[in-house]
Amino acid sequence: MTNKILTTILTISAVLSTSAIYATPVRHRPKVQRVTVNLTNQGYRPESFRLKKGIPASVTFIRRTKDSCGEVVVLPAYGIRRTLPFNEPLTVTFTPRKTGTFEFTCGMDMLRGQIIVN
Is the preceding omega at residue 89 within 30 degrees of 0, hence cis? Predict the structure, then answer.
């Protein structure tokens, strides 16, 4: 009878250790911060917004004016420079790694907005 108990315990231990080896860890999808910025005749709306440090960000720009000044959006701190098509969303993604206030501008550096990272 003792051998039967010992064999059962060893079998259960082997099954548990094998399943632990092949278990797939649960992966949580990281949060993404989402912001939409419209470029109008009055400038960027909103003119500033907040993001949290270390969390991926997805910022969508929509140019609603045909002014040539707004054809490009530049986020110098993140090395981003993209052409903004008229009335079409353009999404840029990045992860804010530093706290502070960071500008985004048009290609001519006339229109400005701010990203505040906490």
Answer: no
For 33-117, the fitting CATH number among 2.60.40.420, 2.60.40.10, 3.40.50.150, 2.40.50.40 is 2.60.40.420
Q: Are 50 and 118 in contact (CB under 8 A)?
A: yes
Q: Which residues of 78-108 are buried (b: 16+ CB within 10 A; e: fewer)?
A: beeeeebeeeeeeebebebeeeeebebbbbe
Each residue of 2-48: pLDDT tens digit?
Answer: 666 655 555 555 555 544 455 556 666 669 999 999 999 999 999 99
